[in-house]
User: Fold these one by one.
Assistant:
Number 1:
Amino acid sequence: MSGDTTLACGPNTDMDSPTAPAKASHGDIDILICEPLTHPPPSTAALEELLNSKRSLSTAGRSFATPHPTISDAYVQVDTRVCPDVEAWRWHLFHHAFGDLWNLLGTTIRPFGLTANEKGLHVRIEEIEALDRKKSMIFLTKDPREVCVLLGLEQERLGIDEDGVVRGGDGTDGRGFRNMEEMYEFVTQSRFFRRNSYIRHTLKANDRKRMAQRDGYSAFVDDWLSAYTGSGGEDPELTRASVWDEVMEKYNIEKVYEERITTWRQERERLKLKAEAREQRKMAAMEEEAHAEARIKNRESGPAKVVEQVE
């Protein structure tokens, strides 16, 4: 599967999200919906009728199986997602632009404690993430322009306009990419890029899944990167600790961090004390059981000894 195509319906605009360069096939169609919205929103039944859908499924959004316009007995998957505000709409458009771009950028920024998901860009608290990744994440921003600045990427190349909307382009005027090779080169221009983040046997489970399912991702790791001779990501001063200090100051998250880490440590201490108390009760029960067995054995052996003495 080569990915999907996104139609963005937002404030005063309907537009196609930038797709992967030279895209030959499409996995499904995503429709991002923002304002204006009706209240209440259309029911699933109404949308099924509008799309002539034969089946639908509700998850994070709503998915519909719509008859293919030219192939008989075939269907197109149409996913709809309603964004709560314009900022969320812009972020979703940015996060899903250019096919596998953010799959690659996600692998690039992960070693530095950064994570981009459907809600925005986050920094992870290292002390927490090994045991609870979700609780470890502190929200930073969902502004595409700020993210580009932080990652050291050119906003103009993504076609981001003055409102923060990704417009893309075909690469002929410096906006967008003419082919996958140009997109791959763009990824390596991030200040966080490190070749060793893409060594096959060190890839995380999600990345290994992408290797199997995303052609653009696997081609970068297995083919393009092996021939890459650039020197991106050679700044020895850039570490996870330095990135933490940078975003701590830039996004003023110290208070959120202190509250999160204090709550985490208190909860861990509570669980530790609970586990210790449970272990103590277990040991006490075992000791009591051992004493009870000893008393039973003493009663069983006592009369026999008396009989022997009388004889």
Number 2:
Amino acid sequence: SLISTIHDLLSTLSTHPSTAEATHDFALQVSGNIYRREICVLTTKASGWQFSAQKATGDQLLGFSIPDMADKLAQQAPAIWRLLETLLSADPTLESRRARANKAGLVRPQPDADADSEDVWEEEDEYWAQLDEEESIAEVDQPGAMDVDNDNDGMSKQRRRAIARRATLIRIKRVVILNILMQSTNQRCNALACFIGLFCHSTSAPELVIEMLAHAGLSVSITGIHNVISSLSKDAHTNITKTRRNFWTL
């Protein structure tokens, strides 16, 4: 039946010269509608991502968690979540080289023979430097951490941690990108931006840096940060007052 062969049919339409362009345009339109719907769902009040800087509380600050945010976003916007994972590791050649190098003991891979230039791996220096740093720390501070795991695949535990760290960083980037998209659609969805702004303020970051981050959608403005601080101060005062009243009733 047509349904059972739909994938083969779509594959043929997307590769045939006479239908490829129209098929791609249709696929992009359908995908765009899916992504748009997911962003619209995320920006509704019911999704839980709307945040008021003027009503921030200490409990919200203490309950803030990037891993929890990532899990929730992955459930609410699965299509965009998968898309970002693909785009953040978009070069299959680099991913394949990394995988082969990891399996072979994580020696820094060399460019292929048909590479365009000798510095093809220049952009990978930071990635492999992080792995080397992780291994050096383990070798000096954690004797035995470099032992090979029991599955005998030739990969050290410390190298596994470094690879897992890269996967975690990609996960964080997906959270950041999705928050920028949400905040761009609805400025009330600024929870992450508020917390980044508050962090910048607590570390005495220059106002020029904060404004630059605000323009990029990564932070709220200076005024927004002051609103968060004022709200947190009021919340703390309320909690102190309640505690004092409870103390006197004992």
Number 3:
Amino acid sequence: MSTSGLKPIIFYDIPTIVQGQPLSPNTMKTRYCLTFKGLPFETVWLECPKIKPFYEQNFLTPTSSVINGTPTSMHTLPVIMDPNTNRFISDSFAIAQYLDEQYPDTPRVLPYGTTALVHVFNTAYLDAIKGTLMMGIVESAQKLNPESREHVIRTRTEQFGIPWEQFALAEKREEQWNELRAACNTMDGWYAKSSGQFVLGDTPCFADFIVAGRFKWMQYCFEKQEWEEVKSWNGGRWGKLVDATDKYLDCSK
């Protein structure tokens, strides 16, 4: 299907204290995909407390996440609504698959024969960064608007069963930073096997958008000196990855 004459896809994202600036690494994956494929889209911003009612109003099935070792139903973004097919799709990986299948004349984010491999890559990536989860929750909450920040604090303390203050203990920060450094070293080993800058060579794919979204989040959320340090790790690989994928992170829509 050609993109000529398409109605813009509605892309649901979470707003931040900086208007038009995305925050979530998960929603950024979809924003990268839409721009990479050259598909027209418009952003609808949903504060966190409004996501569950949005799911219920549109009869969407919750996504699943593992919290404290237990599979947990979650009402999460990204979600897209494609007015060209009248379909809602949730979960960034499912959205990537849908966009490739529905718009085969656009560049693929999951090149033929790689879907299972990229799924395995994503699983390994999540395992590599799991030690940084608490740090990620705290850093993200600080960049959210008040109603979303309050929602995140309330729901995460309920899910993890600990007071909010324990998410950001000063004595844990060095440990979490070391976990992040170890995760970067692990991912650097994966990228070092490639013949190009990206996982599959010279052209980015969904696997690169998974990783780039996380580092773009760091650029937004970390203190400047912290981001400068991360950028310097692994021969500057992560700053270069962010720079190379920024052109696919269209925040103007």
Number 4:
Amino acid sequence: MTMQHMHVDPLILISDLSGLIEQPPTSIEILPGGLEEWQVPELPSGAVQPNVKFPFVYFEGNLGIPKKVLYRLYMAAVNVPRSSPLYPQASTIILVANPAHQTALNSRKRLIQTGVLSPQKELTFTELLIRGDNEWAKQSIVWHHRRWIFGVLYGEMSSTGGCACTDERNLFPRIPPFTLRAEFQLIRGACESYPRNYHAWAHWHAVVKGVCCVAHSGEFLSETDSQAYIGVVISEGLQLREWLNTHVSDYSAMYQLLNLALTLKDVQVLANGQSQNSELLECNLLALQAAELAERYPLHQSLWLYLRVLCDRMKMEDREGIVERLRQWTSSEHIHLSMLNIK
């Protein structure tokens, strides 16, 4: 069944689908096939039956869009002029089908600046995209779009303060701690659905560095504010430490955890003696964890590379203790053990 045979104006369907997404649904999923494949009696009781006027699957707040239907609507949406009142809805469909469509993302930035679109709803929309499909989760410009929205919502932190930050971090918005925790959870979910997601980890890195810069800022009325942000960083570091136990091939995660551990050395002076278990993020304890994982999963080269970098940042006596433990477990001629470059 083609769009012409549907006898439904695709612009009406674009408006309907955009309205559903704006509600928003609990999740969005692109379904294989077209309308015909989903006009079946096996749908759960209570699900909206797809039809010509509503060619989508909608059940308990979960929205499924047949791929053939989506791409027919996409072809109509890309031909909607950006000056049209329908363009905000059309750009929604464009990004669902093609999250790397930079023109649509830039147009939505302008619509946010002019008050046509809500920045908070835009955050929700991009979160739905990221959670919905690997193709969305791995797009660098989608993550950059989220950082831009955070700046609109929370403003830009001034460059004053006691921390020498890059320009990017000087302009990092002061995002509330509970929002940061949710953002980190979203990132880990994206890296779970699309392993070794470089762009998601790059976003993680930018957020962590920004939070640390906020913690160094002299703009706070009380030290309690600084402690809250440091607590977010430490909590996320501990979460990432646990993550490595089940993601032993994710070198991007290992690299980010190491950077976080080194960064904490700079911000920990603000912790006022409250370690909040941050000692688990010291290089010697991270190396001990890496050694234990290397014993269990010796064929994962990423673990040995990670361990080597950690050892380079440890005191000689601590480093020798790690290597001696590994030598007791395996031959001193083991190809990966030799990567540690210690005699």
